Amino acid sequence: MRIYDLCGWENTVKLIKELPALLRRITTSGSYKPEIDGLRFLAILPVVLWHGIQRVSRAQPNLSPDERSLMQLVPAASIGVVLFLSISGFIISSQFIRAHAAGRPMNLGSYFYRRVTRIEPPYLLLLLVSYLFLTLSSYEPVNAVAFWRGSQSLTESFFASVVYLHGIIYNQMPRLFPGGWSLEVEVQFYIIAPALFASLFLIRTVKQQLVVSILLVTVTFAVSRYFEAAFGYTGPRRYTLIRYFFYFWVGVLIAQINAAGKWPKWSRTTWDVLALTALVAYLCSGTAQHSTWWPKNALGLLDVVRIVAFILMFGGAINGHAFARFCALPWICLIGGACYSIYLTHVQVMQLVAPALAEILHPESLGAATMIAVVAILPLVLIVGLTFYALVERPFMIPRWPEKLVSWIGRKFRRSLPTESAGKL
User: Fold this and answer.
1) By C-alpha distance, which of 205, 195, 285, 189 is closest to 242?
2) Are 308 and 10 in contact (CB under 8 A)?
C-alpha cells in the first residue's frame, strides 16, 4: 500500500478536483454560465490583492517612500468593485430581457423577493457578528482607517448599514464593513431597475434600444464626472448611484448586445487577443487610479478605458476560445462564484490577522510584507471565504428557501408528535 494512500492523499486530490462542481452556484433559472463566474474572479482578484498588501504595509511605518510608491503598482481595489457593478447590470438586465422576449411581464414580487432572500442574510449575519464582537469584546482594530474615521457611533453605523443608507447619510464608508458602500449602491440600482427596463422596453426595436443605452451610458458618465468636478472625489455623491450608474448600464448594454446577437463577427482568436489586451488595460487602469503620476483631472479617462475593457472582456468570455476556457476553469469559477462571500469576509480576516502577523514577523521591507500577504493572508482569506460561501451564502441561493425551510421544520415537528396509537398505549 502506498504511503499517500495511508495519508489520504488520493481522497484529498479527488476532493480538490470535485469541489468546484459540488459548490457550483445555484441559479434561479437553472442555467449556469461559468464564464460569468470567471469574470467575477477577475473582479475579486484586485480587491483582495490590494487590501492584503495594504493591511500588512499599514503595520510597517518604516517602509521607504520608494517602497510605498512600488505598492501603487498593485491595481486599486476599486477597479474590481466597478467590474462587479457591470456584472450585476448584465445579470439583472438579462432576466428582464428574457422575460420581455418571451412576451411576459417580469414578476416584480419574485424579483425583489429573490434579492432580499439571496443577498440580505449573509450580509446581515456578517454585520451582526462584527457588531457583537466589537461591542462585547475589548478589541480595537489597528490601522483600520474607515473604522476610526467615522464620526458616528458603532450602533448608528450598524443600523445605517443594515438599511443600506450609510453612504447616503454619512458620506463615509461603513465602520463595520467598509466594502458595504458598494452593496448599498447595488441596492439602489436594484430598486430603480424595474422602472428603467419598463421604460426601455417601450422602445420597439432592438437597434433603437441599443442607441438609447449608449446615450444613457454617455449622459450618466458625464453627470458622474460633473459631480466629481464640482464636489471633489470625496464629495456628497461619492457613495451613491449617481457616481456609478453608468457602470451598471454598461452591463445592461452588454446584455442587450448578447441577447440580440450583435457581437462583431470576429474570429475566436481575435476575441482572445482583444480580451487579453482589455484585461491588461483594466489592471493598468487600477495602477493608474492611485498613482501619483496620473493627473487627478484625468481620472475620467480611466473610466472610459474600463468601459471599453469590460465590453471586450465580456465579448472574449462569450465569443473567445482561450479566454473563455480560462474563465471556465473549475477553480476560477469556484472562486468567482464565491466572490460575494470572499468580499464580505476578506477585510474582517485581514484586519484580525495582518497586524498580528506583522507584530510577530516584523517585515522590514515591502517585499517581506508582500510575501506575508501572499503566502499567509491570502490563502486564509480564500479558506474563510469559501467556508462562508459553502455554509452560509450557498444555502440562501436555493430558490424560495424560506418556504422550504418552514416546510422542513413542519415535517420534523409533525414527526416528533406522538402518534394516536402511541397515545392510547
Assistant:
1) 189
2) no
Alpha-carbon distances of 270 from 38, 82, 361, rounded to whole Å: 19, 25, 47
Number of Cβ atoms within 10 Å of the Cβ of 288? 19
C-alpha cell at 31: 442555467
Longest dimension (CA), the chain: 86
* CB-CB contact of 119 with 397 (8 Å): no
C-alpha cell at 217: 451610458
* Three-state DSSP state, 328: coil
Which tens digits make up the pLDDT trace of 70-82?
788 889 999 999 9
18 CB-near residues (< 8 Å, 6+ apart): none
pLDDT tens-digit series, residues 206-264: 999 999 999 999 999 999 998 887 777 667 778 899 999 999 999 999 999 999 999 99
Distance CA 87, CA 93 (A): 10
CA distance 127 to 83: 24
Contact between 249 and 220 (Cβ < 8 Å): yes
What are the angstrom distances between the C-alpha of 256 and each of 1, 82, 211?
Answer: 58, 19, 11
Closest CA to 279 of 45, 20, 32: 45
Helical segments of 137-240, H only: 145-149, 154-162, 166-170, 180-200, 206-231
Residues 6+ apart with CB under 8 A from 137: none
Q: What span, in angstroms and rounded, lies between the C-alpha atoms of 410 and 403?
A: 10
Angle at 235 between CA 234 and CA 241, to 5 degrees: 100
Buried b (16+ CB within 10 A) or exposed e, 134-149: beeeeeebbbbebbee
For 20, the grid coordinates are 468546484
Percent of the chain with pLDDT over 70: 94
Is 74 in contact with 285 (CB distance < 8 Å)?
Answer: no
Q: What is the distance of C-alpha 214 from the center of its chain?
A: 24
